[in-house]
Write a structure and sequence with these properties.
Helix content: 40-55%
Strand content: under 5%
CATH architecture of the domain at 100-228: Orthogonal Bundle
Distance between the termini: 100 Å
Radius of gyration: 31 Å
CATH class of the domain at 100-228: Mainly Alpha
CATH topology of the domain at 100-228: Regulator of G-protein Signalling 4, domain 2
Number of helices: 13
Shape: elongated
Oligomer: single chain
Structural class: mainly alpha
Order of helices and strands: HHHHHHHHHHHHH
Number of strands: 0
């Protein structure tokens, strides 16, 4: 017997440590068990945390694209938004006369005057379509329609559709809203009312006023209307 073992000698622990030879190959890696489950079972049974920016009601400000980036993206993809069968465009063409040059001239006095006119909204919407930002007008009109609703079930359904079509970042028609307004919507959407999107509607109204309205007044669509008093159809 070794002299050291015979006299009760015990080598230090680090003498018994295994020499590191690199990571264990996949086929040799031991299968760890937790509560009687294999890692594969744990991975399949453990609920995954959803992406907060894509699948929940909340959103961060980094999710919101600027209006200029949004238009650039739509120009690249040449996105065309569908129109609804009962849209204001159809109603205006069927029941209203085309605006005169004098009426169209009044739209340049203020954005409020333009938006109060059905013919003005239609013409402005036609212009927004050329800039790939028609969703702003569609959202504003949808919010106006929601404000007129009295039925609780109809309010809930329309509010859900507005959120899915214009607020959700998964929608191709998402409008540009800041984080504060989105947070307000996320709270109110749980128990929607006709005024759930009031803050968002005001923000989009302001955006159209400051960003799109000045370009509209210098657009060929509006200048042509001033000359001839005719308005081309926004339906394709």
């Amino acid at each position: 017997m070794c002299f050291r073992k015979r006299n009760g000698y015990r080598p230090p622990d680090h003498f018994n440590a295994k020499i590191y030879t690199g990571p264990i190959p996949v086929e040799r890696e031991p299968s760890m068990v937790r509560g009687g489950q294999t890692p594969l079972q744990i991975a399949t049974t453990t609920p995954q945390r959803p992406n907060a920016c894509c699948f929940c009601w909340s959103c961060c400000c980094s999710c919101s694209w600027s209006e200029e980036q949004r238009r650039a993206r739509r120009r690249t993809k040449d996105t065309r938004l569908e129109t609804t069968s009962n849209c204001e465009v159809c109603t205006w063409h069927l029941h209203s006369a085309k605006p005169t040059p004098e009426e169209a001239r009044q739209w340049s006095q203020s954005f409020d005057r333009l938006m109060r006119s059905p013919a003005g909204r239609n013409t402005f919407r036609e212009f927004l379509r050329t800039e790939f930002s028609e969703e702003n007008m569609l959202f504003w009109l949808a919010c106006e329609d929601l404000k007129q609703e009295l039925s609780t079930s109809a309010i809930q359904e329309k509010a859900r559709l507005i959120y899915e079509d214009y607020v959700s970042i998964l929608s191709p028609k998402e409008v540009s809203l800041d984080a504060r307004v989105r947070e307000v919507i996320n709270r109110k959407i749980l128990e929607p009312t006709p005024h759930t999107f009031e803050d968002a509607q005001l923000q989009i109204y302001t955006l159209m006023h400051r960003d799109s309205y000045p370009r509209f007044l210098n657009s060929p669509i509006y200048r042509s209307l001033l000359r001839t008093g005719s308005c081309s159809s926004s339906e394709t």
